[in-house]
Amino acid sequence: MRLSFKQVRFFGLAAMILVTIFVGLVPTVSMISIKEPIEVIKYQFYMMDMLAEINESFDEGKRLYNLYLIREIESADQSASILSQTIKESQNLKKYCYNDEISKLLDKFIKDVKKFRVSVLICQKAIEDDPTSDTAILMEKNTIVYGKHAQDSLAKLTGLVRKISSSANNAIEAVLAKSRMISLFGLFAGIILSVFVAIKMAKALGRPLDDLIAASDKLAKGDMNVTLNMPNDSEFQRVADAFNNMGRDLKGSIIQLNKANDKANQMAKKAAAASKAKSEFLANMSHEIRTPMNGVIGMADLLSDTNLDELQQSYAQTIKDSGNSLLLIISDILDFSKIEAGKLDIEEIDFDLRNLMDDFKAATSFHAANKGLGFICSVAPELTGFFKGDPGKIRQILNNLVGNALKFTNKGEIEVSCCLEKELKNSVRLYFSVRDTGIGISQKDQNMLFKRFAQADSSTTRKFGGTGLGLAISKKLSALMDGQIGIDSKEGTGTAFWFTIELKKSDKTFSSGKTEAPSQAKIPSGISDKNNTQLITGHTISENRRTKKQILIVDDNAVNRAVATAILKKFGYNSDTAENGQNAIYKLKETRFDLVLMDLQMPVIDGFEATKEIRRSQSEVLNSQLPIIALTANALKGTREKCLAAGMDDYLIKPIKPESVLSTLNKWLPVEQP
Fold first, then answer.
1. Distance of alpha carbon 257 from the chain centroid
2. What confidence score (pLDDT) does residue 605 get?
3. Phi–psi pair at 501, nearest 5 degrees
């Protein structure tokens, strides 16, 4: 017969009358000492049950906030409401706090959840005002930090409850061990009744507690189906009920968590697929737009070099200018799309800052001269030597700011300056300024200048064109280089844009030992693009030596083949064409060429596969190591690296310019000296 806990207690009291005081008192003390750990465990199960609900509620609040950040839902109010519920449930749990340390941790968790909830609401307001602002970005980061703090507090609280529960189990085990020892002693020192009572007590207390410990161990090891059974009239039945309820709730929480993880994985896969689709779309758009633009600008450029009267020359120049303007707009849109998708990286190469500014001045000064404007470009004398950074992105910011200055300035001058703002141990912070004497910008319009697709004048009668992306791109680029951008302007008195960037110091020195590296040839102000092209042609072409070189042009677009052929002919090179990679491989097997201009996207065999076939060690082409120059309309990140990985030697972006073609050919096919 299995006695209940109450029955064992009754027989224990009777035994004390019949046995010695020593034998009788010790079991009584044992009974009293074991009651408190049992109560602790009982409250532990209540707390674990409620903590499971709090954990589920808090996770739901975080999940709704994350969905809001990726725009799966329109508002973060649902998250704030769930977090309020979490706070209320946590406050209800305080009445079960029998331990000061648990109470302190619970108070800290409630405080952290309140901070997280307030931060969610503030972040929502900042995103609604301007999702790209520094405040919105900062609040997103702060909210994530507050959520992490609350998560950590909940983890510490749960861990402490489990630790105290474990300590209570250990206390019970210690008391049980002591009780068994006393019973054994009573076996030799007491009477038969004492022996009987001790054995029944051990069974009545030990078996349920052993079952409880065994069930707890199984639950801790991940067995969510474990249940604890106790006699209906036993005090342990309440503990068993609480344990079984906790197990069911925990199992449900794990199922929900697994579902949430599966959903998160599915969303991640969809996001990755969307990102890939966007990248492919941008690549295709770049190719499809730049390919016909190559034909328009290239043919207009070639047309300008023919015998045209003044009116026809004006028409050809208009075509070129319009094409270049359209190309700038396309480049702005693609650049901004790359920045938004996180596809734009900052290079870190050695470059000479003075050379960069000299080249920029040479390329820009004649545009200012054509408008009758003065143009000043200066660099502080202490900025000498090389720096590590991305000169292309620096020049892009300068082009955007000076382009705006040229657009909005009709008289006076434009001044570009660069100085040292701060020198650090391994880097420098530079301050650039672009000042003009143009129409100026009102304070109201300045507030929207750096927003995407925004312009100071958005009316249908506005004087000046543009996409409104130049300044937004410049802001992103300066931020990527650890800097800022701003404006000082008053309407009618001119404008001064400024930006800062941080560059690392370089150990590179000039090989000539001079304090200034040789810069590229400057374009005198007042000389047009056409005259400049004629000047380059007249001084650089050595037709009697270049006619010995044979170049293969591979492009599926007939207009692009015609443009490339005409440019090569102008520079004195012989050329042949192929409309796809398969035809190119066939011609390379039949004729020994000196260089290949290879398009990337072509039918039958594209440029990548054709290059791999040419470079293959068993290839049947006559010269498998000839230079292969990628000729592509794809200007997105990673294209250059992909070309080089396929075995190509260099990279030209459409629309191709005669100067770029000549510079590349001189690099890979140097003119033999007589």
1. 26
2. 93
3. -145, 160
Count of CB atoms within 10 A of residue 543's CB? 11
Cis peptide before 655 (omega within 30 of 0): yes
Written as six digits, the tokens of 23 are 């034998």
The answer to whether residues 546 and 570 touch, using CB atoms and an 8 Å cutoff, is: no
Query: What is the Cα–Cα distance from 587 to 577, expressed in whole angstroms?
Result: 9
Count CA atoms closer than 13 A to 45's CA, side-chain side.
23
Other Cβ atoms closer than 10 A to 157: 24
Residues near 393 by Cβ (< 8 Å), separated by ≥ 6? Answer: 346, 347, 477, 480, 481
pLDDT at 417 over 80: yes
Q: How far apart are CA 606 and CA 73, in angstroms?
A: 43
CB of 635 within 8 A of CB of 334?
A: yes
| Distance in angstroms (rounded) separating the CA atoms of residues 299 and 293 | 10
* Spatial contact of 293 and 654, defined as CB atoms under 8 Å apart: yes
For residue 431, give both structure tokens. 């301050």
Helices (H), 133-235: 134-189, 192-220
CA 123 to chain centroid: 19
CA distances from 579 to 560, 576, 604, 626 (A): 10, 11, 10, 19
DSSP state of 94: G
By three-state DSSP, how is residue 530 classified?
helix
Q: Cβ distance 185 to 23 under 8 Å?
A: yes
- What is the helix, strand, coil percentage profile of the chain, to 5? 60, 10, 25
CA–CA dist 554, 607 (Å, integer): 8
Cut 0.70: pTM above it: no
What confidence tens digit (pLDDT) does each residue in 620-645 have? 999 999 999 998 876 566 778 889 89
- Please state, in angstroms and as integers, the Cα–Cα distance from residue 237 to each residue in 122, 175, 246, following that order: 48, 20, 14
Q: What's the N-to-C CA distance of the chain in angstroms?
A: 118
Distance between CA 11 and CA 190 in Å, rounded? Answer: 14
C-alpha closest to that of 206 among 254, 238, 174, 184: 174
Exposed e or buried b for every residue in 199-214, given b needs 16+ CB within 10 A?
A: ebbbebbbebbebbee
H or E stretch covering 421: strand 413-423
Contacts of 537 (CB under 8 A, 6+ apart): 570, 571
Strand 574-578 relative to strand 628-632, pairing: unpaired
| CA distances from residue 78 to 70, 125, 146, 277 in whole angstroms, order as listed | 15, 14, 18, 31
Burial of 128 by CB count in 10 Å (0-12 exposed, 13-18 middle, 19+ buried)?
exposed
Rg (CA), the chain: 40
Beta bridge partners of 379: 418
Helix axes 607-615, 639-646, angle to 10 degrees: 30
CA distance 621 to 627: 13
Cα angle vertex 81, ends 76, 87, to 5°?
A: 125
Q: Does residue 60 register a pLDDT over 70? A: yes
The tokens describing 388, both together, are 């590590």
Predicted confidence (pLDDT) per residue in 507-544, tens digit: 887 654 443 433 333 333 333 343 344 434 444 445 55
**Of 137-146, 276-285, 320-329, 466-475, the least confident:** 276-285
56, 89 in Cβ contact below 8 A?
no
| Phi and psi at residue 419, to the nearest 5° | -140, 170
Q: What is the amino acid identity at position 277?
A: A
Question: 418 has which bridge partners?
Answer: 379, 432
CA distance to 226, 528, 559, per residue, from 316 (Å): 85, 14, 17
Note the pLDDT tens digit of each residue in 103-118. Answer: 888 888 888 888 888 8
Whether 497 and 485 have beta carbons less than 8 Å apart is answered as: yes
